[in-house]
């Protein structure tokens, strides 16, 4: 009894399955293409000294490279171990007013987990009938806001007009825009707003558009003051967050803009084709701006489709949760993988 009472009890985030056997893996939004060739070469040329010694706690090389790519100052960039690390650190740093933090009822389920972990109160306004957010819901008194844009798992993008309205209404709290999927949107990033709104923090990741989920790199761009506060918390927690390997491979990946453009355009093209094919099979879905489709079939149960695909070694994501249990979230893979998916679905829908 004594022991139990002293524990920080939490309900953890449940990550998508990472099967060992070879399957068609469309369940955790990884990129089907390999990382940039330069990043791969880096691995082979790794200087043993770099592994023997502690890495650069300031992550200077990658921070400067990102600053130049996104046309901001290095003082406006914070790098972490995947955006999950950056976001966890941001909850700890920015959401301390005791007032509820706001995020939509249907969004990245980790937000709720961090709020619970850090004992941050939160309120979750419902998405509207079209699965978009209502800006008015984010304009009352609150302790901060976090929005994924494009949102997950819906894939829907909110215009910068909506984001700006929310920023203007909330000058006294931090508004985080989680842009894990922005590179697939073909629409403007909120990074363009950081010089105008000192309360804006934008996060992005190398896990999706840069094919490096296994390397764990994420970053935030914002006002210098916000970045300084984040760094203070980081150095109070763990100074050496990124490994020497991650710093080098990450930098090489950002330097190869051509490869990045080529692979993201390929995924966007496959996504648009997937929309046509899935619609032809009778599926309904919000118009995704991300590297996944959030789809339901009016005649078939989500769980049934999920299991039937799984039996055919095709893994997608399904949540047994009200409002979204009819849906499957399907990552956009290669053309070939998607072809196998359509064939499997055709067969399942016929039987
Ligand atoms: C994938 C994802 C993340 C986390 O990505 P990392 O792999 O930790 O960089 C954050 N937010 C959303 C909405 C995501 O889908």
From TrEMBL:
| Reaction equations catalysed | L-histidinol phosphate + 2-oxoglutarate = 3-(imidazol-4-yl)-2-oxopropyl phosphate + L-glutamate
Source organism per UniProt: Sellimonas intestinalis
EC class: transferase
Enzyme Commission numbers on file: 2.6.1.9
Q: What pathway annotation does it carry? A: Amino-acid biosynthesis; L-histidine biosynthesis; L-histidine from 5-phospho-alpha-D-ribose 1-diphosphate: step 7/9
The record describes its quaternary structure and partners as: Homodimer.
Report the GO molecular function annotations. Answer: histidinol-phosphate transaminase activity; pyridoxal phosphate binding
Cofactor(s) this protein requires: pyridoxal 5'-phosphate
One biological process term from GO is: L-histidine biosynthetic process
Q: Which InterPro entries match?
A: Aminotrans_II_pyridoxalP_BS, Aminotransferase_I/II_large, HisP_aminotrans, HistidinolP_aminotransfase, PyrdxlP-dep_Trfase, PyrdxlP-dep_Trfase_major, PyrdxlP-dep_Trfase_small
Entry's NCBIfam families? Answer: hisC (TIGR01141)
Keyword vocabulary terms for this entry: Amino-acid biosynthesis, Aminotransferase, Histidine biosynthesis, Pyridoxal phosphate, Transferase
Its recorded name reads Histidinol-phosphate aminotransferase
* Similarity section: Belongs to the class-II pyridoxal-phosphate-dependent aminotransferase family. Histidinol-phosphate aminotransferase subfamily.
Matching Pfam families, A to Z? Aminotran_1_2
Database matches in SUPFAM superfamilies = PLP-dependent transferases
Fetch the PROSITE patterns from UniProt: AA_TRANSFER_CLASS_2
All copies of domain Aminotransferase class I/classII large, residue ranges: 22-345
Residue numbers carrying N6-(pyridoxal phosphate)lysine: 208
């Amino acid at each position: 009894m004594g022991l139990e009472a002293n524990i920080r009890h939490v309900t953890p985030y449940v990550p998508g399955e990472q099967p060992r056997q070879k399957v068609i893996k469309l369940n955790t939004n990884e990129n089907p293409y390999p990382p940039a060739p330069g990043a791969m070469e880096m691995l082979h040329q790794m200087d043993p000294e770099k592994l023997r010694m502690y890495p650069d706690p300031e992550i200077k090389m990658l921070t400067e490279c990102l600053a130049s790519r996104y046309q901001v100052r290095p003082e406006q960039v914070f790098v972490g171990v995947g955006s999950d690390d950056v976001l966890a650190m941001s909850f700890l740093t920015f959401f301390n007013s005791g007032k509820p933090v706001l995020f939509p009822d249907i969004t990245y389920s980790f937000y709720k987990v961090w709020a619970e972990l850090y004992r941050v109160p939160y309120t979750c306004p419902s998405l509207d009938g079209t699965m978009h957010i209502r800006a008015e819901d984010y304009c009352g008194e609150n302790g901060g806001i976090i929005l994924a844009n494009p949102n997950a798992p819906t894939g829907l993008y909110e215009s910068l007009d909506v984001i700006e309205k929310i920023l203007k209404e909330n000058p006294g709290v931090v508004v985080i825009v989680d842009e894990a999927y922005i590179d697939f949107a073909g629409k403007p990033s909120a990074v363009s707003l950081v010089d105008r709104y000192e309360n804006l923090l934008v996060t992005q990741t190398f896990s999706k558009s840069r094919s490096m989920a296994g390397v764990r790199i994420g970053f935030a761009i914002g006002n210098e003051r916000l970045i300084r506060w984040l760094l203070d918390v980081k150095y109070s927690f763990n100074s050496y967050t990124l490994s020497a390997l991650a710093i080098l491979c990450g930098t090489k990946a950002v330097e190869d803009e051509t490869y990045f453009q080529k692979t993201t355009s390929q995924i966007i093209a496959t996504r648009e084709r997937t929309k046509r094919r899935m619609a032809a099979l009778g599926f309904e879905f919000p118009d995704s701006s991300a590297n996944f489709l959030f789809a339901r079939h009016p005649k078939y149960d989500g769980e049934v489709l999920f299991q039937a695909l799984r039996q055919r070694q095709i893994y997608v994501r399904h949540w047994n949760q009200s409002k979204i249990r009819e849906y499957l979230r399907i990552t956009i893979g290669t053309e070939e993988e998607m072809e196998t998916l359509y064939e499997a679905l055709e067969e399942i829908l016929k039987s």
